Every structure is written in C-alpha cells, then in structure tokens.
Amino acid sequence: xxxxxxxxxxxxxxxxxxxxxxxxxxxxxxxxxxxxxxxxxxxxxxxxxxxxxxxxxxxxxxxxxxxxxxxxxxxxxxxxxxxxxxxxxxxxxxxxxxxxxxxxxxxxxxxxxxxxxxxxxxxxxxxxxxxxxxxxxxxxxxxxxxxxxxxxxxxxxxxxxxxxxxxxxxxxxxxxxxxxxxxxxxxxxxxxxxxxxxxxxxxxxxxxxxxxxxxxxxxxxxxxxxxxxxxxxxxxxxxxxxxxxxxxxxxxxxxxxxxxxxxxxxxxxxxxxxxxxxxxxxxxxxxxxxxxxxxxxxx
Length: 299
Hints:
Blueprint: H1 4-15, E1 36-37, E2 46-50, E3 55-59, E4 64-73, H2 74-80, H3 103-106, E5 112-115, H4 125-131, E6 137-140, H5 142-146, H6 148-163, E7 165-173, E8 181-182, E9 186-187, E10 191-198, E11 203-210, E12 217-220, H7 222-229, E13 231-232, H8 239-242, H9 275-298
Antiparallel strand pairs: 1-13, 2-3, 3-4, 4-7, 5-6, 7-10, 8-9, 10-11, 11-12
C-alpha cells in the first residue's frame, strides 16, 4: 500500500515540474534578450534553465545561479500576494549531479539559502515551488537575507505595482582570490546585485551590496554593474541609459497589509457572524499548516 507521504510527494511533483534545459523564457527578458556574459570565465559550464515565472543561468563551477531574470507586473505582484509560502528547498534534477548544489551542502553552513528570484514574486503555487530549486539559490548572510535584502525585494515589488512593469535581473558576484565555499562545493558570493529596467521610461539601475551583515548598499548604473559582475544585464539598452542609474526606492520594511504605492486603504468587507463561514476559515487555515508541515518533512 502506498503511504500518504509518498502520495503527497507524487502530487507535489505533478504541480512542480523541474526546470527545462532550454533557451526559452523569453518573457523574462527585456525585449527578449538574455543578459550577456562579458567575462568569459563565467561561461564555463553555464546552463540556462527555464521556469514558469523566471529564468536562470546556472554555473556548474559555483553551483549557484549566475543570474535569475523575471518580469514583474502589477498583476503578477498582486497574484503573488495571494499565494501562501511553502518552503520546499530541493536539488535541481535538471542539472548534472556534479554541477548542482545539494541540500546537505547548506546544512550547518551558517548561511541562509538565499533566493535570487524571490519566492514572494511568484504568481502561482507551481512557480513558487520552482523558486525553491537550489539552482535559484546562493549562500547568503543570514542577517542580510532577512533584513536589507528582504526590504529590497519588497521595495522592488511595490515599485513594479506603481509603474506597471519592471524587468529584474538578480545575481551574485564572486570577487577576489579568497572566495569561500560551503561544504567545499558551493561558492559564497562576495557581493549581490538586483538590477531593474523600466520599459516605459527606459531607465535602469541596480542595487549592489556586500554579502555580509548590515552592509551599506549602492545604487549603481548598469555600466558599473557590468564592470564588477562581468554581465551586461540589459544588453538592449542604449549607452546613455547604461551609464546613468535610475532613482531606486530606499529599501524599507513594510508592515503587513500596508497599502501598495499610492493606494488608499480599502474599506473592509462587512464582517459576518456566520458559524459556517468561521468554520470554513478555520479549516482552510488548518489545511495550510498541515501542507507546510508535510512539505518541510518531505524536503
């Protein structure tokens, strides 16, 4: 007899397909053009992966993404806010075993498993499940991941809501001669970046910071980012847009339910005292908690 955990795992795999080894995901890239590798060392053992809501260029040398690209829209951000987060980190089976990170690489490493394409950006449950692939993850300082980096991710979502559409490219930088590796396999970034492009205004720029506790952040131009990262994240941009950094929102923590952008608080729906409505709500909450617990036990 098949156990309930195996059945649940099978159901999960049915809704969370592995990445496609393909040159697809054109919608994730501004004008359909992928970031270009300027530093030829980055190209070795680099594999493009296509997911439902984002694309990754994965490095078999660092066993991390070189970048993750996504298109954020007002509608996709609104949809993502309706998806409950279920942490389910997993190895990427679409990659060769020798070139991919493993869950045990991160165990007791002292680093968070930091998303490049954030789980909070994912507009469906399937897309969110895919975002937990280790092909989309880097070793990230815990305080940074849970503080400044989370604030940047939320500030970018809110900017996308205000402006309508943003293209976002996020990635690690490995600089210097003493780059560390967790478990002797997965390289630890020395810096991280998140680059934005607004197709309506033609503006672009990037957040750049060290991968450490409470670092200062910089707003840099795409041209400056090209120099430090070895990537031209938006190759279709005209030179004048590449050398000037757009005004980026100051990263800040938002309280739960705080209105987006310039939106005014909406009136609350009339409260119902129906026992049936209350019972349905409680059942839904219990099922969500059970689902999270089972996913964590499996993965």
